[in-house]
Design a protein that fits this description.
- It comes from Pseudomonas triticicola.
- This is Lipoprotein.
- Keywords: Signal.
- By secondary structure, the protein is mainly β.
- The protein contains one helix and twelve strands.
- It has a domain of 161 residues.
- The strands form two sheets. Strands 5, 6, 7, 8, 9, 10, 11 and 12 form an eight-stranded antiparallel beta sheet that branches.
- Strand 5 and strand 6 form a beta hairpin.
Length: 244
């Protein structure tokens, strides 16, 4: 795993501008090691605010000698574009564990998470990737945060919005499944915050036979809708939708 600072080449930036897209002209926070993650993004809901994130790797004292087993602290901040002085912050030590299922990337999510007429949240997506080819496991976890004064407060914690898992022989035989979840702000509310409707779509793949005679079948499950309701502190996430 390498250092994941967000830098965009001049060619990529030119292409984005030609496509009429916007770009967050911000400098990622400093990092302390190659395993750390550092990124930033303008917050369209509240111009000219910018969100920054720094996730610092802390090796396990016993098993972390190779630099892959340990935990990640998470530091979030909201700043005024062009400034390095934080307006609001959040810090969580050991926010993510990384072992055989390792933290592979982080992403700031500024989709339209409109919780009240005057309040919008932003998200952090943490992507984990397993090391086994025959027992694959990929997961992306979404957490949402709101700005309250000089603090950032988590209101949704570790919703699994993507998963890919299964067991196969590495050639053909076995089963794998992929689940993609999307969020939509509901028309109802709980404790003043909009309910969140989660739509889960699962696709399965079953393989039989040897590599030369492999036959595979794709299955599509009926979409499942789940409503998440705010309890006054956070949105309650059922155990089957929550990551570790």
């Amino acid at each position: 795993m390498t250092m994941k600072s967000v830098w965009i080449s001049a060619a990529a930036l030119c292409g984005w501008l030609m496509a009429g897209q916007t770009w967050a002209d911000c400098t990622p926070p400093a990092v302390s090691g190659e395993a750390d993650f550092s990124l930033c993004k303008d917050w369209p809901a509240y111009p000219p605010l910018t969100i920054t994130a720094l996730s610092t790797f802390v090796p396990d004292p016993v098993y972390g000698h190779d630099g892959t087993v340990g935990s990640y602290d998470l530091d979030l901040s909201v700043i005024t574009a062009g400034s390095h002085k934080p307006l609001a912050t959040y810090r969580l030590p050991s926010a993510f564990l990384s072992d055989a299922i390792a933290l592979d990337s982080l992403e700031l999510d500024t989709a339209r998470y409109k919780l009240t007429p005057d309040l919008r949240a932003f998200g952090v997506r943490a992507h984990f990737k397993g090391s086994s080819r025959v027992n694959p496991l990929d997961e992306t976890l979404l957490s949402l945060y709101v700005k309250e004064g000089d603090k950032l407060r988590p209101v949704l914690d570790r919703l699994v919005v993507y998963s890919f898992s299964g067991e196969w022989d590495g050639n053909c035989a076995g089963e794998r499944a992929e689940t993609v979840r999307t969020l939509e702000m509901g028309k109802t509310s709980s404790h003043g915050y909009a309910d969140i409707v989660v739509r889960s779509v699962t696709t399965g793949l079953v393989g039989e036979g040897s590599p030369d005679t492999c036959e595979s079948k794709t299955t599509h499950e009926k979409p499942v809708l789940t409503t998440l309701r705010y309890d006054g502190q956070q949105y309650f996430v059922p155990a089957n939708l929550r990551g570790y």
